[in-house]
Amino acid sequence: MGLADLSGLAYPWDTLTPYAERARAHPRGVVDLSIGTPVDPTPAVVRDALAAASDAHGYPTTHGTPALREAVSAWFARRRGVPGLDPDAVLPTVGSKELVGLLPSLLRLGPGDVVVHPRTAYPTYDVGARLAGATPLATDDVDTWAGRDDVRLVWVNSPSNPTGRVLDAAHLARVVAAAREIGAVVASDECYAELAWTEPFTTTGVPSLLDPAVCGGSHDGLLVTYSLSKQSSMAGYRAAFVAGDAALVADLLATRKHLGMIVPAPVQAAMVAALSDDAHVAAQRDVYARRREVLVDALTGAGLVIDHSEAGLYLWTRPADEAAGDCWLTVSALADRGILVGPGAFYGTEGTGHVRVALTATDERVHEAAARLSGGLPLA
Predict the structure, then answer these.
(1) 3-state SS string over 219-231?
(2) pTM more than 0.85
(3) 51: Cβ–Cβ under 8 A, 6 or more apart, which residues?
(4) Three-state DSSP class for 88?
(5) SS (H, E, C) 147-195
(6) Of 20, 111, 365, 371, whose CA is between 20 and 30 Å from 277?
(7) Residues facing residue 306 across a β-bridge
């Protein structure tokens, strides 16, 4: 079974180029809130660990060092309410996007198999299914796929990119139960879990798929992917991992050994440092919280509405007037003010009325955006 040909599938961000050029022409420069790439320095504790491990003359292990896998297990227990995760059921990945895009293929799915993903979602879930030759199904309704024996993989994304929606433990438990009835794998993309902004999640934390309250204490058929890009400003390190069902992880490991899909040894050492230090994560969260407050006030003051956005690095935004709900009108109006945002249409048909506004700009640029929005936002 070969991989599908995706050469004719356009990369959506390329269509944003004319608006980016218009925004960059603003006399005070562009405020780029379109992509969630961190702008703050990588913490010293991480960089020091990377430097100390820079004498990496031997090949690293695909499975990751015992220290890394134990650090992931300890982090899950300390930060995510998941006790007793087997370190053998942890596997580092080269960022989380490659795992999202390749998981259907790595699970050897193909024609006739269905991959469920959220209705409004990061496009890589859809692309990964098509790459494997499987059929993507965009839905948030468990009843749409429950009982179907052709469903082989179910993606959940909580907190969501782009909407910031958080799924509670009861919803996740229902997904797990329905998937187990048909023998499907559930994969949960939880990369924004440390960035909760509203109750109850700021107090209790964002529920994980591997939480005993969700999975009944068994990780069978379950995988969680997580990235350090956001919480630790490590996007350039491509530092992530997948964890859960030990048998599934072992199968992924065997394939990745053959393909040479290995996280570099210095990056593995940096991951240990990042996962073992909660102080820098809290400090970075405070930075994003301040930027979020400024942007929420500015956007709502300009006549826009923010939906969901309970967690994560984005504000899911639309005009208060539903009749003006063409995301490209909002993108255009903001570009005229030198502000670049992500069109909701990139994330599925349900997103066509919204734009995604990232919190990942410097304090100066965030305040500049707020100043430009102070007079409101005409959309016609």
Answers:
(1) CCCEEEEEECCCC
(2) yes
(3) none
(4) helix
(5) CCCCEEEEEEECCCCCCCCCCCHHHHHHHHHHHHHHCCEEEEECCCCCC
(6) 365
(7) 317
pLDDT tens-digit series, residues 209-234: 999 999 999 999 999 999 999 999 99
Where in the chain does DSSP place strands (E)?
A: 31-32, 90-94, 114-117, 135-138, 151-157, 185-189, 222-227, 239-244, 304-307, 314-319, 339-340, 342-343, 355-358
pLDDT in tens, 54-68: 999 999 999 999 999
- Asked if residue 3 has pLDDT above 70, the reply is no
How do the residues of the chain divide into helix, strand and coil, expressed in percent and rounded to 5? 45, 15, 40
- CA distances 183 to 49, 57, 132, 148, 227, Å, are 41, 43, 19, 10, 27
pLDDT band at 115 (very low <50, low <70, confident <90, very high): very high
| pLDDT (mean) for 333-362 | 95
Bridge partners, 177 (sequence order): none
Instruction: Report the pLDDT value the prediction gives residue 380, as an integer from 0 to 100.
Output: 43
Total number of residues shown for the chain? 380
Q: Coil, strand, or helix at residue 23?
A: helix
Residue 181 has pLDDT above 90, yes or no: yes
pLDDT digits (tens, 9 = 90+) for 250-283: 999 999 999 999 999 999 999 999 999 999 999 9
- Name residue 177's amino acid: A
- The residue with tokens 């979020």 is 292
The tokens for 166 are 């958080």
Mean pLDDT for the chain?
A: 94
Contact 292, 67 (CB under 8 A): no
Q: How far apart are the first and last CA of the chain?
A: 50
Mind listing the domains of the chain with CATH numbers? 12-41+280-373 (3.90.1150.10), 44-276 (3.40.640.10)
3-state SS class at 96: coil
User: Could you give the C-alpha distances from 303 to 165, 298, 313, 344, 375, in angstroms and in order?
Assistant: 22, 9, 21, 18, 10
- Of 251, 152, 234, 127, residue with least CA distance to 191: 234
Residue (of 3, 49, 27, 2) closest to 275 by Cα position: 49
Is residue 319 within 8 A of residue 306, CB to CB? The reply is no
